[in-house]
């Protein structure tokens, strides 16, 4: 049985919430309703998976204020704004702050549905990328300080011979470090190790910015 995606619906208009919940549940989503931004913050983990369908103008905390609070808590919950009173300035502000979409009321429910599906598809891909980065970061942090230092030089193109001279050790010692690094990181080739370094920001930190494709 396929797990249903969770949608968090925040709107201070009960009739709107009820109608949208019925529609979205008929499309096989799990929908949790909230009458205010404050209620969402009190009842939902900011790190939860799913998608937030958020009214812009509400009594109490506005949608833009909630977006800012979630962003400050490092939440990755994607947001689709819905509003009957939004301005161009509001939409620009929301989108620049990371909102996935900004839809004006009244709208066709199918338009919202398509936006939700596209956003969730993108979010699944982003979650996979974050999981990969977290795993690679964990592996990198488990390297010894010397292995981390050697890896940074290796992925920036420093040869074993030059690196041995820089660190005042033998080339054989560098080869041993390199072999252990490849094993601990789970890399089968230098290009794969370079891609891993790019994924967790090691190369950017050392001055390179070019993208290396993920090895097949």
Shape, principal axes of CA atoms = elongated
Structural class: alpha/beta
Low-pLDDT stretches: 205-216
Broad CATH class of the largest domain: Alpha Beta
List the strand order in the largest sheet.
Answer: 2-1-3-4-5
Number of structurally distinct domains: 2
| Number of separate strands | 5
Strand content: 5-15%
Please work out how many helical segments DSSP would assign.
10
Biggest pleated-sheet summary: 5 strands, parallel
Mean pLDDT: 90
Instruction: Give the topology string: H per helix, E per strand.
Output: EHEHEHEHEHHHHHH
> CATH homologous superfamily of the largest domain, by name?
Response regulator
Named CATH architecture of the largest domain: 3-Layer(aba) Sandwich
Can you put this structure into words, describing what you see?
With 216 residues, the chain is α/β, with parallel strands linked by helices. The protein folds into two domains: 125 residues, Response regulator (Rossmann fold, 3-Layer(aba) Sandwich), CATH 3.40.50.2300; 64 residues, Orthogonal Bundle (Arc Repressor Mutant, subunit A). Helix content is 56%, strand content 11%. It has ten helices and five strands, in the order βαβαβαβαβαααααα. It has a five-stranded parallel β-sheet with strand order 2-1-3-4-5, with helices on both faces. The longest helix is centred in the middle third of the chain and has 33 residues. It is elongated. The C terminus is likely disordered.
């Amino acid at each position: 049985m396929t797990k249903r995606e969770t949608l968090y619906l925040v709107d201070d208009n009960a009739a709107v919430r009820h109608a949208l919940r019925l529609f979205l549940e008929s499309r096989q989503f799990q929908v949790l309703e909230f009458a205010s931004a404050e209620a969402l913050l009190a009842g939902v983990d900011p790190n939860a998976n799913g998608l937030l369908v958020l009214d812009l103008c509400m009594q109490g905390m506005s949608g833009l204020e909630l977006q800012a609070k979630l962003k400050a808590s490092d939440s990755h919950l994607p947001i689709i704004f819905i509003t009957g009173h939004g301005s161009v300035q509001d939409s620009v502000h929301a989108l620049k702050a990371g909102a996935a979409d900004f839809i004006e009321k009244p709208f066709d429910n199918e338009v919202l549905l398509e936006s939700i599906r596209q956003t969730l598809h993108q979010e699944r891909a982003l979650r996979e990328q974050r999981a990969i980065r977290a795993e690679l970061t964990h592996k990198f942090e488990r390297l010894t300080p010397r292995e981390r230092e050697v890896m940074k030089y290796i992925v920036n193109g420093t040869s074993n011979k030059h690196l041995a001279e820089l660190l005042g050790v033998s080339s054989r010692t560098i080869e041993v470090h390199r072999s252990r690094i490849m094993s601990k990181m789970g890399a089968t080739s230098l290009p794969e190790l370079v891609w891993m370094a790019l994924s967790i920001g090691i190369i950017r930190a050392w001055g390179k910015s070019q993208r290396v494709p993920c090895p097949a």
